[in-house]
Recover the amino acids of this structure.
């Protein structure tokens, strides 16, 4: 079964801006799917359409076979969304943000309270459950939004730039949490500017440009298409930039350093591989 | 989602509304107490003592239903318009819009929140009035009916205003330029029998007149217009406003892009 199925989706805003241009793609159930694209490429519009915040101009979209227009109740029941901007009531207490949202999905209060405690503990913000949500740090607010999206146990979690403005340590812990969530069967659709994040987390991805999908496939197949890779090699003489063509052997190259008695202290990719791919498509 | 789920959803909206207006009680519940107390002191006490009875009721007692209704109208309207606009401003309205909560539950929930605040303000003002005068209530069910219908109408009106409001100014325009003049000319402070016939005719175009008049009938059994027609008019207003709001919600006006 497909978690998301989109056919010939178009969106033109009243201003005349064409945000989605005949977009067609599918996301399999259980996938960790990345959606990459520059600002204004149409990612947030697409998420808005899937979650019912933006109206379509034409085309169809369905969530687990529930059309978002003709069967919005079942489609929405399947979705948890973490938007790019903080959109909770900043005057509500953290626990109330979660329990209220669960209530909108028909989750009884008693059950919601228990679920909220479990999620807040998992995401390490339980100690803040009784404070107004506006007093949380940026990273905590991000985690609160993830917890809120999971309150009704959706089969599909949509994350729009979930780690924007989050420090490295917290980002890594959020990645771990999301991986575990995906491993338990939750389908995840992730949009991000952080290409390392996409490479680390996603199984499949699509690159979107001016409202169109311009590349789609598994992360490994897309990366294998790269013609060359550039590495920075650090030795006692300093850093050296080397390029390895597609099919080239990094190990063989290092052997040549060894043969010349040059000690290599560090080796690292000059740029993220996905970034290379992404830039080559722009 | 089935009916029990809708009820949970409705409960969540109403609970959030009650928490909101009780948390900021100094902005929502206290001001009407102070304002209406001033009206009682100045119009009822200082000026009212110089005015003869109206239809057999002392001027101070005559004021009570109108002042209560002013509080109910403003409380119900302000609660919903500020809550809907605030939710749009903070984007927290998206929490509701991404959920499977149907539009009628959203509208009903916000309206109920407004009705509860309106009624609470009304009860508080009634309590305040007891300090100045001992108002009698001849028809408690009519008082309750008019309070319910009126707060429902203005809560629905507040929702409509909230849908179209794009900035803070938009929240204040209707109450200042429409609601307040209509209320003041709606027979809160006088009986239209005291006006020349031309102004009596003009006054009868003001819907607030029927509300205040019907409510006052519940207290003292005195009315300028027939009660039954007032109730019918209020019910028609409720239906019209509900249909407009639901249509706008369905189209996503002011909420969706």
């Amino acid at each position: 079964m497909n978690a998301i199925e989109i056919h010939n989706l178009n969106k033109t805003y009243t201003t005349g801006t064409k945000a989605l241009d005949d977009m067609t793609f599918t996301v399999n159930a259980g996938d960790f799917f990345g959606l990459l694209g520059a600002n204004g490429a149409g990612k947030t519009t697409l998420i808005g359409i899937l979650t019912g915040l933006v109206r379509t101009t034409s085309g169809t979209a369905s969530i687990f076979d529930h059309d978002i227009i003709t069967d919005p109740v079942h489609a929405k029941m399947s979705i948890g969304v973490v938007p790019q901007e903080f959109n909770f009531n900043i005057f509500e207490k953290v626990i109330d943000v979660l329990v209220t949202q669960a209530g909108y999905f028909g989750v009884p209060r008693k059950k919601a309270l228990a679920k909220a405690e479990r999620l807040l503990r998992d995401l390490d913000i339980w100690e803040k459950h009784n404070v107004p949500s506006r007093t949380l740090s940026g990273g905590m607010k991000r985690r609160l939004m993830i917890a809120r999206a999971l309150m009704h146990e959706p089969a599909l979690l949509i994350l729009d730039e979930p780690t924007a403005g989050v420090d490295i340590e917290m980002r890594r812990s959020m990645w771990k949490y999301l991986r575990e969530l995906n491993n338990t069967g939750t389908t995840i659709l992730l949009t991000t500017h952080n290409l390392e994040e996409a490479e680390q987390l996603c199984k499949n991805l699509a690159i979107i440009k001016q409202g169109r999908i311009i590349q789609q496939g598994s992360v490994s197949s897309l990366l294998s298409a790269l013609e060359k890779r550039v590495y920075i090699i650090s030795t006692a003489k300093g850093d050296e930039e080397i390029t390895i063509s597609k099919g080239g052997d990094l190990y063989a190259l290092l052997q040549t350093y060894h043969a010349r008695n040059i000690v290599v202290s560090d080796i690292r990719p000059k740029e993220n591989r996905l970034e290379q791919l992404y830039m080559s498509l722009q | 989602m089935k009916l029990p789920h809708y009820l949970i959803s409705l409960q969540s909206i109403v609970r959030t509304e009650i928490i909101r207006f009780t948390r900021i009680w100094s902005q929502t519940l206290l001001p009407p107490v102070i304002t209406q107390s001033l009206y009682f002191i100045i119009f009822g006490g200082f000026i009212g003592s110089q005015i003869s009875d109206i239809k057999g009721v002392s001027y101070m007692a005559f004021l009570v239903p109108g002042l209560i209704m002013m509080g109910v109208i403003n409380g119900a309207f302000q609660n919903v318009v500020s809550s809907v606009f605030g939710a749009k401003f903070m984007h927290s309205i998206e929490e509701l819009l991404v959920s499977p909560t149907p539009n009628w539950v959203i509208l009903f929930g916000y309206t109920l929140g407004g009705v509860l605040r309106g009624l609470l303000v009304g009860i508080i003002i009634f309590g305040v009035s007891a300090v100045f005068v001992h108002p009698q209530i001849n028809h408690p069910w009519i008082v309750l009916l008019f309070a319910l219908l009126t707060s429902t109408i203005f809560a629905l009106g507040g929702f409509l205003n909230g849908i179209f409001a794009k900035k803070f100014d938009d929240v204040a325009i209707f109450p200042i330029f429409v609601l307040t003049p209509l209320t003041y000319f709606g027979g809160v402070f006088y009986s239209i029998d005291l006006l020349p016939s031309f102004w009596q005719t003009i006054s009868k175009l003001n819907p607030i007149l029927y509300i205040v008049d019907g409510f006052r009938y519940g207290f003292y059994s005195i009315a300028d217009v027939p009660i039954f027609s007032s109730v019918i008019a209020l019910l028609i207003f409720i239906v019209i406003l509900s249909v407009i709001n639901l249509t706008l919600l369905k189209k996503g006006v002011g909420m969706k892009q």
